[in-house]
What does this fold into?
Amino acid sequence: MPLRPQTDALRGSLDLLVLKTLSLAPMHGWGISQRVQQVTDGALEVNQGSLYPALQRLEKEGLIASEWGTTDNNRRARYYRLTAAGRRSLGEELASWRRFAAGLEVVLSST
It folds into this structure.
């Protein structure tokens, strides 16, 4: 039986990763992907082809906002920051993810 696409689960995970990363400080897209990779010791890599549509979607939903700025390398980049609505959504998403992970762990640990 072929695996079903898990677009919604992946999208939810990516959104959570982005929101959590931006809760630390405003960042440009490349910085977000590098931060996730750094924090997870390379276990998670955020694909640029998925990240930028997610950033656009989150901004459209009002969870993040953006403005142009200059990087340390003196290049123009769009910097993203968490909005108040994004901070609330992050709290809800974290609680939901933790419930899901705890339930999954119970199933995986059962004999």
